[in-house]
Amino acid sequence: MVDISRPWIVDTPISERWPVYTRANVGEVSPNVTTPLMWSMIGGPPAEREWKQALVEFGAFDIDEFRPDVIDIQGMIHGYIYLNLSNARTFGARMPGASPELMDRTYLGEVEAPPYVPHPDDNKPEYTERILKTVQRVLSEKARPDVQEHKEAAARLRAERPDLTTLSDAELVARERKIMEDPYAPVLRTHLRMVYEGSVVTGAFDQAVAGLGDPSLAIRLMGGLGDIASAAPNQAMWNLSRMVKADAELTAEFERGIAGLDARLRAGTSEAAKAFVTEFDKFLYEYGSRSTDEWSAAPKSWETHPSIPLGMIDRMRLQDDDREPARQAARLRAEREELVATVREQLADNPEALGQLEAVLATAELYSRAREQSKSNCVRMLHEARLPIWELGRRYVANGTLGRPEDITMLLESELDQFIKDPQSFVSIIAERWEWYDALDELEPPFFVNGEIPPVTTWPKKKDPDHQPAQSGTVLEGLGACPGTATGVARVITDPEDAPDLEPGEILVAPMTDPGWTPIFTSAAAVVVNVGSPMSHAAIVSRELGIPCVLGVRGATKKIKDGTTLTVDGSTGKVTVH
């Protein structure tokens, strides 16, 4: 029996300067134990270095406030990722117009947190002055050429990918390391800084329309922008779904089921099958980096697991033509232009307020597009670094050393060299770590940690649900992300491989907001998600598709049961259970 009371392989010491940690938001996006490879290669120290620099560049912190070579902004406790709430509160204390209490509401909603204990260094004028300079820069920007440059760099990286099967094991590891160091690291830093910059835009937008008496105005004005990177796969999948719908043989293959579909299509001899495979391969080239666990070390990406996008296409082929994303986008653009004209008329007698609105409209449009493109840049580059590791795992499955490619994620990144030299010496280590992983993965980590970690042996088990099913008449509240209402049967989907279960007209209830989920949105009447914010991926994409969406309904995938009839109001953020 493995001893789970000891720290997990990649656990980090908690901070004395910032002692309060929370599983809010990150607990829904990363519900399971973190693999050693993910934390040592992608999430832990590599991300922390760029995250700290992003906060320094934003003006909110000095680098010497953080412990050198130690995790402060994140947390890793018995394998579970935490966010440092105390650090976020410090950011709120220094941010003009914000506060520690506002950061609590942003991350936690109405959940009561350990009390905020001010630190002498939390609120200092010099930080406020720096942040104000950033705010002024963000609100005056007309373009983000850095994001465009990163997009082009990601495209070059994909175009220059060698045949990984021809590289030696050592060359595969070297390729991963080179990509993670450069170009990936500076692109990640840009994206992390942009998350904070995006919060400036959201706050300015809310302020600009606050006096007009319509609480849904801000999110309505942020829809129908067009050219959103994370929405682009939806239209590409839609086009593929129309090819299926138009051909009886393709339709018959899809109706046989998703299992083995990719192989059957590639073995097909009809012109329709050949044309579909050609277009599908173009799709995988462009968007194959996407997955629903986009920060993990070995996710089920669309390129490595093509059955996932095929399952999404299968749902889209059942939709009427009027659900086409491009049609919806055109309609929403027209509605937005009409709404902007109306608001301009309302503010015609107030030149100052009108000028503020015009500036914020342009900035919101810029940042909505840039933020999504920035995330896409990160994911595409990260995919190129992970594929060599996937190839390495595949090889050692083929020679009988490993049982599955994912076994390699039980290694630390620093152990890869030794693994290549003597793979057999790690077989028992990998098995023991999986046993340890599985034991920890049964547990429900505490929602808050305040300076002291409760003994892991006292943690409850996940199989003991902490949410009672919502009863008829219950109104769940979240954040309205896209206006509109829809009533339908709930379909709770926690894994994108279950997408074929979603029927037209049903309401998708999902755990997270990663872009890899958003093609499923096209097949839903409305969307309810456990986490999210006005500038999150689900929010931006739902506004591009015109699908009523409510985010931040904590525990929605546990509270709402399959088959429950719901009414989703994307304006008020209310989800009514019938």
From TrEMBL:
Residues 503-573 form the PEP-utilising enzyme mobile domain. It holds the Pfam family PEP-utilizers. Gene3D superfamilies: Phosphohistidine domain (3.50.30.10). This is PEP-utilizing enzyme. It comes from Prauserella oleivorans.
